[in-house]
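Schema walkthrough. Field components (list of strings):
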Amino acid sequence: DQQVKQNSPSLSVQEGRISILNCDYTNSMFDYFLWYKKYPAEGPTFLISISSIKDKNEDGRFTVFLNKSAKHLSLHIVPSQPGDSAVYFCAASARNQGGKLIFGQGTELSVKP
Amino acid sequence: DGGITQSPKYLFRKEGQNVTLSCEQNLNHDAMYWYRQDPGQGLRLIYYSQIVNDFQKGDIAEGYSVSREKKESFPLTVTSAQKNPTAFYLCASSEGAGNTEAFFGQGTRLTVV
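Field assembly_structure (string):
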């Protein structure tokens, strides 16, 4: 039972344009959502998070949007840079279910110069 | 320097042998996690611990065991009962369970031959 789903395994974007990475979830008890960036053979690094009481959180070039009714969140990167090329994972947790982080399958972003 | 350390980075074992992966953190975090990454499958939760001397099974705990005798340490043993042990293993820690980001180590690549 995949509670967090990233249905696009890969995404290719031109440098300077917007990258939009999507994530869907099924567990209505999730109350905290995160995005991580990962390079091969390294641990993921935290990018940005959002609580379920908000619908948007912004940090520099990164913005996360949460649509609770649709159980959908997205990460926008504007403008995209070649250094953004990596695998992006979304994750979710529910405080009243132990707070464990559940991850999606990841989306590999390629930003072309 | 505060952080989370996994050792070794690469580990080779013969089939049928148990092997223990080390994870140490000096962030004073209460919660610790073990994930496994396989190609195209994202990060799957093996075990997690919210507090010393307590831990819970994740989604794929079969063939693994853990201990949490000290706050800073959460070793993972891959037993001979694990049918497909070759994978990239990631340890993480967070301040508490839920509504907080987790910080990851650099991972251990285990190869069983």
